[in-house]
């Protein structure tokens, strides 16, 4: 279902312009300037932040980490930005655009951690290359991640999860802290739920979760 166009969307997005990254290449040398901080901090990236429930909670929990959130749909990104501004979170910035935009923005070895939360499963076999855990994306993530970087992945779709585990392994990622039922696992206490996750877990869906760490030797 498509979201209805928000009233005064352009004005509301413009009011958040100070936390939107535009026409800027991001590297380890200019991150401090982008975030207006003095000390070098880890840089995390959420791909597909939705309405911002996850990224706002993550930023509040980790004030010593800089976080960039990507969202393709401008009206959805606007809600996330407004949420972060209302919470006065200085460590979050946004990119509005498709995931393919990232490859031109981030220089090699810039990001410490990538979050992929409930990405579109693209269930048809012919659409496998569109999955954000397909190897064509994983090779790009490898490039922009630091040598000891990681991807934190959650999904309610078991087919996508199994596919992703194989792709991670084939692309040289080391899998850790894997569970097929996150909310009944040892990692449940520290888990931050997305809006989607809360809705589907209340309906009885199990949540799959894994950390895919770079293996510098490969």
Report on the structure:
This protein has 218 residues and is α/β, with parallel strands linked by helices. 31% of the residues lie in helices and 22% in strands. It has eight helices and seven strands; from the N terminus they run H-H-E-H-E-H-E-H-E-H-E-H-E-H-E. The chain has helices at residues 9-14, 31-35, 53-61, 74-86, 102-105, 135-144, 158-170, 195-202; strands at 43-47, 66-71, 92-96, 111-117, 145-155, 173-179, 208-214. A seven-stranded mixed beta sheet has the order 3-2-1-4-5-7-6, with helices on both faces. Strand 4 (111-117), helix 6 and strand 5 (145-155) form a beta-alpha-beta unit. The longest helix has 13 residues, at 74-86. It starts with 8 loop residues before the first helix and ends with a strand.
List the main descriptive attributes of the protein structure presented here.
alpha/beta, 8 helices, 218 residues, seven-stranded mixed β-sheet
Topology:
Layout: H1 9-14, H2 31-35, E1 43-47, H3 53-61, E2 66-71, H4 74-86, E3 92-96, H5 102-105, E4 111-117, H6 135-144, E5 145-155, H7 158-170, E6 173-179, H8 195-202, E7 208-214
Parallel strand pairs: 1-2, 1-4, 2-3, 4-5
Antiparallel strand pairs: 5-7, 6-7
Q: Would you summarize the structure shown here?
A:
The chain has 218 residues and is α/β, with parallel strands linked by helices. The protein has helices at residues 9-14, 31-35, 53-61, 74-86, 102-105, 135-144, 158-170, 195-202, and strands at 43-47, 66-71, 92-96, 111-117, 145-155, 173-179, 208-214. The protein has a 7-stranded mixed β-sheet, sandwiched between helices.
